């Protein structure tokens, strides 16, 4: 399983040749100017919620690649109004099998409003089960005890967790979240993009190490195999 980081909370996960793109906010991100979105290939685009910093490039990438957009009902309905036809709506607690694996849409504690002010439904995260690994993308969220249910129901190999504080969990709550879902390995996201969420990387890594966790903080454009 190959993971590529495009900045903020945007990741491309290649699962046996199938490309799953999460929360593409790339072209408006000054830190991701090195990324040419016209080169990104996606078969699916999974969107955790409706905020601009998670949906900015969905329409352009989906129209070019024909990727299926998967999100909650309200977010998907909004994208249909933007001209997207290849979509799949979900809601909390629901799951669906796709050709790369099974996706479950799970709780997140945050807010969700579309860029034009339309309602974005309730924010969420995804648990993705594949033949290779099972992982959790928390989306933007506070620490929640519901994460323990994920750990009870799934064997999570790694997680994508926000660590930027202010709008989401900080590193300390992310470490607890990793405990709750039952993994010692997590990829940090939603940090450093804006002044509100600037963090000290060395302090975050130290906190994770002291807790017995492996915190992966990728450079934009970096690719790793998990």
Automatic annotation (TrEMBL):
InterPro entries: Metallo-B-lactamas, RibonucZ/Hydroxyglut_hydro, UPF0173, UPF0173_UPF0282_UlaG_hydrolase. The keyword Hydrolase applies. SUPFAM superfamilies: Metallo-hydrolase/oxidoreductase (SSF56281). GO terms for molecular function: hydrolase activity. It comes from the Bacteria. The keyword Hydrolase applies. Keywords: Hydrolase. Residues 7-190 form the Metallo-beta-lactamase domain. Pfam families: Lactamase_B_3. Belongs to the UPF0173 family. This is UPF0173 metal-dependent hydrolase EL17_17955.
